[in-house]
Task: structure prediction
Amino acid sequence: MKNLIELILYCAIFTLMVRIFAGSTPLNCLYFYPKEYQEKAYEKHLADRKTVQEKRKRFLWIFTSIMCAVLILIIGAINGVRDYWNAYLQSLLFLEVMNWYDGIVIDRLWVGHDRFWYIEEMKECPYIQTWDQVLKKRSFLTIVWIVASFLVAGIVVVLF
Result:
């Protein structure tokens, strides 16, 4: 039960950061949209490619730093994990839940149903990822998180 609450809070932090970075317009997070959609936005002069890339880098740096720090604190400080194998398993659990949460809850449900993410000037372009796109991306990231969990576990063991 404790891990479930931690997972919910972890995903809530994820969601909050996405919403904060979006600010008052989804154009602030154009980097989240499919590449074809981004290209159309550039063609329509709704956004500048360089600015979008700078925002993307800034978001990824801050997002990754915060999510990693929170994960390490949950595993090491809150859950008191000291051995590598348990740190790895908890890291893997959190990262995989975040991965699929992002694809299903954020990409398909939130972006797909909240009018905030709709950009009027782009109404002719589909912006919601298809289930096929979500499955491909999340399957690839599943492998990435399997590997990244080794690093997180190592950091937890060294720090705690």
Observations:
- The chain has a mean pLDDT of 96.
